[in-house]
Amino acid sequence: MxxxxxxxxxxxxxxxxxxxxxxxxxxxxxxxxxAVAFIALLVVTTxxxxxxxxxxxxxxxxxxxxxxLVCLAIGQAMVIVTRNVDLSVGSTLGLTAYLAGRLFLDxxxxxxxxxxxxxxxxxxxxxxxxxxxxxxxxxxxVITLGTLYVYRGIMLEWAGSDRINASDxxxxxxxxxxxxxLFIPNLAWISFALLAVAxxxxxxxxxxxxxxxxxxxxxxxxxxGLRDKRRVLQAFATSGALAGLAGILYVSRxxxxxxxxxxxxxxxxxGAAVVGGVAIFGGSGTVLGAALGAYLLTxxxxxxxxxxxxxFWQQAVVGALIIGAIVLDRYFARRQHDKLxxxxxxx
Amino acid sequence: xxxxAEKAPTRTYAAHAKPWWQRTLMxxDSAIIALLVVVWxxxxxxxxxxxxxxxxxxxxxxxxxxLLIALPMTLIIITGEIDLSVxxxxxxxxxLFGVLHREGLPxxxxxxxxxxxxxxxxxxxxxxxxxxxxxSLAVTIGTMALFRGIAVGALGTTAITDWPDAWGDAVQxxxxxxxxxxxxxxxxxxxxxxxxxxxxxxxxxxxxAAGLSKDxxxxxxxxxDRTKLILFTLSGLVSGLAGIYFTLRYGSARGDNATGLxxxxxxxxxxxxxxxxGGRGAIPGVIAGVVLIGTIGSALRLDGLSANIIQIIxxxxxxxxxxxxxxxxxxxxxxxxxxxxxxxxxxxxKKSE
Lengths: 347, 353
Fold this sequence. Notes:
The complex is a heterodimer. Chain A has helices spanning 2-5, 15-28, 30-48, 51-54, 56-64, 67-81, 89-106, 111-136, 140-159, 171-178, 186-204, 206-216, 218-223, 228-254, 265-275, 287-306, 314-346; strands at 180-181, 184-185. By secondary structure, chain A is mainly α. A two-stranded antiparallel ribbon of chain A has the order 1-2. Chain B starts with a helix and ends with a helix. The model of chain B is unreliable at 1-5 and 346-353 (pLDDT under 50). The chains are: A mainly alpha, B mainly alpha.
């Protein structure tokens, strides 16, 4: 990152040299590694079965299936960067999805209003997490583990044995969820747009940079005068709002809302972020990496049966991937550390 | 030390500033035990059939797996680490036990091999955390998926259900003519073993030291890495044991046995007064935490309320427990500052800071 911000050197480097250093910079990025792994997976799987990419369904599923997880992974990455974690997103997703379903069933509210209500409800649930974390000085792991139970319990209590079926959902929303625009599914467009906004937010705005500062060293950030409580609240509210949106995306994609919606997806979101290079102890990693991690994990799930591995083994592969990613991260971090030490001794 | 003692002979240590009875009673452990007693008394009076011995029988059988796993989990969290892969190890143990039994191995042999495999699984967590220096939260989220994946992969959606009746009966047997399950005996033995390890051995002191400060612990001669490696291995082994219990009790070996149990265990342990930051916690509080959640659950069921409320109550209790600690610490600091300001005319108090 810092190399691109360097002030222009007195003797301007040769353009070719600069291009080469750009290339090495790009190759060193964690995101490039994930993207390469993702593309390699696509190539191999498509070579085995061309339908994986070149059929209408295959092409559609490539970006449609990960859309919900991408949404959650973006929020999760933001929260993890501030040295917190949000385990309640699965329950938030379930609760907002059910809320939306209930609103469709019981009231005649227009779809757009229901979407807004669901996102707002998600943001409020996220704010509750954030307030508990920021003001009680209790680790987010514990708080969001608690709210994971509370939010899921509220949903189960509210829903009872009811289930919301596709026939209760306005057809417009269902058509939107399965439809596409310019050969790319609508939900995928939404996830791309969110990703673009989040990348800009985290890279180039004050809020985003302060997220990193707080995650790198909370005490230093406080001493520096950053409003850490407000930022943590914002990170959690964003994560909650994205989980609320993910709930709506779920409704529009699947139409059926049962009590188990979103159960366990919080750990997938954390897994996607970790695979994507977001350090679990905050301060480093990007939302782009987390989104790529989500694509990789979801696509592996779909690729395994094509590659002749029974899909029961999906989870084992995902687990091995997560462990591989953090071991690799550790290795590179240590090598970088040694290199910096060596440089300091040389000078 | 001696120099300081001469200058300020009246120095008191924060941990010993209060009379022993206050130190024993005014703890998180006692608070959670008191809450358990209150809930138990209320339920016995207000809820029909709660005081029946049969309630206790099913309560013990139901909470046994959580209670088992909570023991090594307590030790791990006190060192400042966490193990989220425990429920997946339960599934792994169940499937291995089932497959080996199906292949015709004697029950005991199948059991021992499954337990060894689970100990190896736990050791893998330990090696990744200690040798590679990786955060246990990330590692065990990974192995959680890995172990569960192996368990589900090995059996698919099928289940192994032909178990000898004698073994299933043994797990659910009662002591004599009472309603106390036979399982209580091994449970109590394990609880005692873990309580002794944690509270009465040098190894246990090392666990607390590692959680309070890794570096300080290392300088005072605690092999922090070895301690953590042993604890993760132990966690795998005990989770394996819980898996075998699970299999025999329900007569079914499935890959998805005990899914989500890890969060219940962590919730119970934290509710029992163990600090997620490490360095603080005790076995009695954890037992009370596990039993409290189990008691509320069975009381609600007997009262005809849905079991969903138990989830809300578990969550609220967990949050309330940690926030109470934080609020108490905060008010304690304010009171402390106030006292110090008002006794600053005494010259000795400043030096003892």
